[in-house]
Amino acid sequence: MAKRKLKVAVISDVHLGTYGCRAKELNSYLKSIAPEILVLNGDIIDIWQFSKRYWPESHMKIVQRIFKLLANGTKVYYLTGNHDEMLRKFTDFKMGELEILDKLVLDLDGKKSWIFHGDVFDVTMKSAKWLAKLGAIGYDTLIMINGLVNWFSEKILRKGKVSLSKKVKNSVKSAIKFIDDFEQTAIDIAIENGYDYVLCGHIHQPAFRQVTTPKGNTLYLNSGDWIENLTALEYVDGKWNLYHHPNTKPDDQNDDEELNVKLPNMEMLYKNIIQMPNVAFTSTSKL
Predict the structure, then answer these.
(1) In degrees rounded to 5, what are phi and psi of residue 116?
(2) Within 10 Å of residue 229's Cβ, how many Cβ atoms?
(3) In Å, how far are 69, 106, 139, 190, 243 from 39, measured between CA atoms?
(4) CB neighbours (10 Å) of residue 85?
(5) Which of 129, 144, 121 lies closest to 203 in space, CA to CA?
(6) Distance linking the first and last C-alpha atoms of the chain
(7) Taking the CA of residue 141 as centre, how many other CA atoms within 13 Å lie in the half-sphere pointing to its CB?
(8) Buried b (16+ CB within 10 A) or exposed e, 185-224
(9) Averaged pLDDT for residues 142-159
(10) How far is CA 238 from CA 7, 107, 108, 223, 235, in A?
(11) Fold (topology level) of 4-274
């Protein structure tokens, strides 16, 4: 299968290690592209909910797929998010074509793309992290329930899929206000700093919106997630596009031979990163 050549691909909010992660669909997407640059924009591995008891083969294939891209010359930026914030102690780490950062500015065809996860705007992350973590567990549980509901809806009732989390978000005014405030804050800062594009993740809400204010204009983009929306951002032929993965059965064919990349086992990952004592992290950099 011919791969689509991209200048940049951006994915976020994959949440590897949780039951809601749609790893098979993401693997299908990553197999279909050949990007010069891949930006992993936060919450790729869900360290908050990481457990040695749940790490299926489909999740490991995503890690292998990323290393396969690295081996083929793709530059990979891992931008940390709140669910993988433990990796922030490794900010500015670089190994070959892999680099861990908190934020990134790419100059593409003379225009600046400002890319970061977005949890810096989340009040609950600053004042009540325990509440955010509790909400993450509740969200993952809701996704599991949603899977059962959709199975019943499709197999028994012969109806389409429903998204319980979207219905909850859309029915709660505070959730709508949070998303609006988040987007507006990102837009205002981007315009103030002269960025042509601002790309975020975090809120699991894919977006593609040109915004003009008295102070200037910018294109606000959100890469969505790989739990419900199955979306990514792609830069090709001089412009950004919002990619939606087709609602089809993922490619489950055996490609282990293709992904023959030697990686540390999850026991080593758990001991060396997840259980690592906290290291003080300070940064003088500004948004």
Answers:
(1) -160, 165
(2) 20
(3) 12, 11, 25, 19, 14
(4) 19
(5) 121
(6) 40
(7) 6
(8) ebbeebbeeebbbbbbbbbbbbbeeebeeeeeebbbbbbb
(9) 56
(10) 9, 11, 8, 18, 7
(11) Purple Acid Phosphatase; chain A, domain 2 (3.60.21)
Pick from 47, 37, 70, 101: nearest CA to 270 = 47
pLDDT at position 85 is: 81
Beta bridge partners of 99: 77, 94
The residue among 107, 120, 26 whose CA lies nearest residue 65 is 26
- How confident is the model over 48-95, as pLDDT tens digits? 666 667 889 999 999 999 999 999 999 999 999 887 888 888 889 999
Q: Are 97 and 120 in contact (CB under 8 A)?
A: no
Q: 200, 222 in Cβ contact below 8 A?
A: yes
Indicate the domain borders of the chain: 4-274
Question: Is the entire prediction scored with pTM above 0.90?
Answer: no
Instruction: Tell me how far apart the 2 most distant CA atoms of the chain are, in Å.
Output: 56
State the Rg of the chain over Cα.
Answer: 19
